[in-house]
């Protein structure tokens, strides 16, 4: 094993010196540095690498107003973009890494509920009445009879 390290040290130092200029007094320091680095990598670490711990518990990571990133602990309303730009993970990779269920939310519940189309009156949003659930439309007809003519809801203008 020591012979292998010496042979690798010789090859590395020779390759370095062939393309770089170095004073003769600095060559022994270079050899010692390369040899010690190779010797350190030859010995495996005594303890295996431990699994990364989440920044917060999975149970506490979902709140009504935000989702906490298990990687770094940041609070986000929408976690997917943060995972991609900040950690280089897709949603599936994130769920697999932390053993999260498939239905684990990546958007804060309040934020998601706020943007649902049936939370708006058709005249107040760009969502057409045809896109709304019939049950919601029936409720809107009762709440806003001015928009109803002959049992149908007028399209917003």
Automatic annotation (TrEMBL):
Which terms does the UniProt entry file under GO BP?
regulation of DNA-templated transcription
Return one GO MF term.
Answer: zinc ion binding
Q: Per the record, a Pfam family?
A: ROS_MUCR
Q: Which InterPro entries is this protein grouped with?
A: ROS/MUCR_sf, ROS_MUCR
Family per record: Belongs to the ros/MucR family.
**The protein's name in its UniProt record:** Transcriptional regulator
Organism the protein comes from = Paramagnetospirillum caucaseum
From the broadest rank down, the organism's phylogenetic lineage runs: Bacteria, Pseudomonadati, Pseudomonadota, Alphaproteobacteria, Rhodospirillales
């Amino acid at each position: 094993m020591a012979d292998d390290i010496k042979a690798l040290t010789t090859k590395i130092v020779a390759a370095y010196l062939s393309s770089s200029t170095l004073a003769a007094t600095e060559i022994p320091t270079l050899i010692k540095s390369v040899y010690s680095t190779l010797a350190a990598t030859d010995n495996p670490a005594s303890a295996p690498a431990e699994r990364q711990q989440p920044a917060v518990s999975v149970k506490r990571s979902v709140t009504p107003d935000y989702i906490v990133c298990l990687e770094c602990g940041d609070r986000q309303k929408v976690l997917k973009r943060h995972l991609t730009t900040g950690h280089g993970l897709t949603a599936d990779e994130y769920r697999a890494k932390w053993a999260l269920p498939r239905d684990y939310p990546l958007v804060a519940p309040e934020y998601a509920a706020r943007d649902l189309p049936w939370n708006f009156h058709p005249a107040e949003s760009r969502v057409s009445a045809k896109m709304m659930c019939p049950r919601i439309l029936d409720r809107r007809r009762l709440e806003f009879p001015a928009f109803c003519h002959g049992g149908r809801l007028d399209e917003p203008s």
